[in-house]
Model the fold of this input.
Amino acid sequence: MVNYRYLGNSGLKISEITYGNWLTHGSQVENDAATACVRAALDAGISTFDTADVYANTKAEQVLGDALKGERRESLEIFTKVYWPTGPGGPNDTGLSRKHIMESIDGSLTRLGTDYVDLYQAHRYDTETPLEETMQAFADIVRQGKALYIGVSEWTADQIRAGHALSKELGFQLISSQPQYSMLWRVIEEEVVPTSAELGISQIVWSPVAQGVLTGKYAPGAELPAGSRATDEKGGANMIKRFLDDDVLRRVQELKPVADELDLSLAQLAVAWVLQNDNVAAALIGASRPEQVAENVKASGVVIPEELLTKIDTILGGVVERDPGKTAETAPKGRVA
Done:
């Protein structure tokens, strides 16, 4: 069964393995299979579910809401996000303006079949809306009881600091950051993590298995497995391509003895690795089959000895991306229509 951790400097506990439905529900996976995965997550003790309005253009929220129907609401932590374009893509169907936020939260609650979300997250930083406007809208949503806490995703350390200062001024809690983080992608370690730790914010990390590369299923020089993320033209292939380098794939294969020593699969090792970071509250995992959920949960509670952490660093060497500037570099420079 999964362990639980506090989210930021709050009293909210979440499952350290959190179920996310990006690139699966409403897109890659049929609804019955998606529901089976959610049931497997609940059976494994996962109580925290993360989605976003943009996933499958709102369909993912609907699928998750349907899958959780009948569950005791108080026993769940449901997270969603706002920023990316939804609906027909009109000029106000994107970003973090007050209009888009206030309309989006109501749409998300309807699709999820709930009166409130436990965490409402800014899915990216909006360079075209004053931060004060965004944070005031979040403050009002919290006061209306539509969200209990507020978080951000892929914000830089400076943006997090500015948002946190305004949240304190406006009387609500900014408690989380949701960045990409894995053995191969460590760009948050130099700036985002220390800033967050100082401010009482913790990380809910996505892609702990680096889009599937850290599962070891992609072999150097081999053809891409049929039906894998790397062959998915709906978005998965574009996200994974940065890791599909033969040197990266060879080094991942060399992690197998480390995983064996801990009696873990490579995927479990990858999830357990991100959870060794004290500032990480949860690792987001997705699934297309229920058995994948059961396997990933085995990473919960694992302690990787220091000598093996050092060995992992030695094996991966220079293929690890550590540049903190990548957070800003990969962020949208303006609203995406």
In short: Strands lie at 4-6, 13-15, 17-20, 48-50, 77-82, 117-122, 147-152, 174-177, 202-205, 280-285. The mean pLDDT is 92. The longest strand covers residues 77-82. Residues 4-211+265-303+323-329 form a domain with the TIM Barrel fold (CATH 3.20.20.100).
